[in-house]
Structures are given as C-alpha cells and as structure tokens.
Design brief:
104 residues, 3 helices
C-alpha cells in the first residue's frame, strides 16, 4: 500500500472516530454512606461533602479522567471552565489508568 493510500485510510478512520459519541460525566464529589443513611434521605435532606464549593470538578469521558475545572455560569446554565488537562505520561500509565495533570 502506498503512503498516500495509508494516509487516506488513516484519515477516514480518524474522522470516523471523531464522530463517535462517548459518555461524559462531571464529578463534583463522592461519598460513601450506610444503606440506612441513604434510606433516610428525603426532601430537604442535607448531605455534607468533604469539599469546598471552590474545589475543582473532574471531567471524565468513558470513565477516564480527562480534565479538571471550575463550575461557572454560561448563558444562564452551569458550565465547566477547564483549568487542567489530564494526560497519560506513557503507554503503561494509559493501560493502568494512572494519569498526570498538566496546566493549560
């Protein structure tokens, strides 16, 4: 196969991948609770979290951490202002899910 054919094939593959939808999740906090505590939750319940409202939230794509940022208001809705992209440092980290952050 010629180099031009290989590039064209790769370009089509890359274009196809860019059109795939992936689930994106914003994680503000995690908390473990006893089942009895969960069962007692009702309207007006307040669940304390070990976070400040100013702490960064995490942006995950397909359960993989990809960025961190602050919650902001944009056009009357909540949005995330990305402050840090999270990148794999090598193939071993990519396979194990360990990531290292980098400021942008």
């Amino acid at each position: 196969m010629t180099l031009d054919r290989e590039r064209a094939k790769t370009g089509r593959t890359a274009s196809f991948l860019l059109d795939l939808e992936v689930p994106v999740t914003v994680r503000f906090a995690r908390k473990r609770m006893l089942y009895g505590e969960v069962a007692a939750i009702g309207s007006g319940s307040v669940i304390p979290l070990d976070r400040s409202p100013d702490d960064l939230v995490e942006l995950q794509a397909s359960d993989t951490l990809i960025a961190r940022g602050h919650i902001v208001r944009a056009d009357g809705n909540c949005a995330i202002q990305i402050t840090e992209l999270v990148r794999c440092t090598d193939d071993k980290a990519r396979a194990g899910g360990r990531r290292q952050g980098g400021e942008i």
